[in-house]
Amino acid sequence: MPPMDHRIVVAGYERAHASEVAAAFEVFGAAAFYLRRAGRPDGYAVELRTADGAPFASHGGLVMRPDGALRDVRGTVGTLIVAGTFGLPPEDDEFLEGLRGVAARSERLVALCTGAFCLGRLGELDGRRATTHWLYGAQLQDRAPLAQVDTDPIFVRDGRVSTSAGGMAAIDLLLDLVQEDTDRDIALACARGLVLFLRRTGSQAQFSAQLLGQLATSDPLRELQEAIADDPGADNSVEALAAHLHMSPRHFSRVFTREVGMTPGRYVEHVRLDAARRRLGETDLPVESIAAELGVSAATLRRLFLTRLGVSPTAYRERFRTTSGPFHVRLVS
């Protein structure tokens, strides 16, 4: 349960992502609602702060009115959240010194998207695993050389510091924090209330198979991609897939590779890898059972993990069931 005085400070600035600022209010607001409905104290109080306390315009032009300046925060803070932006956040002394003061009195530090650059400037990522939007991973590593930057997972939690990828990954991380504070039922209630298709774990990759390649332009191939994703355990051999489209295997392979950017076999492997990662992160099923669901042997699944991620399925599950310690997985296309 969150303590009754769990205070959440969201740090905003000119051109910050409105969606990430709003996500903190929406997710913790939903948690408070479902906790109250369950007859439990909600414990959350969320406030928005900027360097000087003045209103600011988000990247999309939405004007936001903060509750005050970062420098005026007093008392203990449960969670400090730094929103991200397109490009890099501000590096002016007033904003960073305000963050430094709040960070020193915060139990948890959270950076969404490129907000990680701010924590990097404060030295809070030193010696820790961290992620950010995949576009900015190399820059973050350059600017925070003592951090262990990994742009594969959608979020990383290492001790009191948590970082997320861009976009909707912010919600996934915030829901994980809600689960830590409360329990799985409340986190799932929030996810359902927010009409999320799936509450993703940090083990999810920023690139799904569909994003790693591309969606085909022709309807039949695009529908075939959807069918593979819907049932990765089916007979997805080149021969079977080609038969669906009434093509010869050779012609099908050429067309698929041209449209999607990878061979059918490689695409099916990535879809199965995505599915296995979800199952390992969200269930306690044995590796053998997960492999059977995906239509491969446990040995084949293990080879796929070792080849693509450099780690076994068991080690992958163990790492992403904990919240600390250095570890790297790198997706190989």
What does this structure look like?
Helix content is 44%, strand content 13%. The chain is α/β, with parallel strands linked by helices and 333 residues long. The protein folds into 2 domains: 6-193, Rossmann fold (3-Layer(aba) Sandwich), CATH 3.40.50; 209-320, Homeodomain-like (Arc Repressor Mutant, subunit A, Orthogonal Bundle), CATH 1.10.10.60. The strands form 3 sheets. It has a 7-stranded mixed beta sheet with strand order 5-2-1-6-7-11-10, with helices on both faces. The chain is elongated, with a radius of gyration of 22 Å. Residues 322-333 have low confidence and may be disordered.
Short overview:
This protein has 333 residues and is of the alpha/beta class.
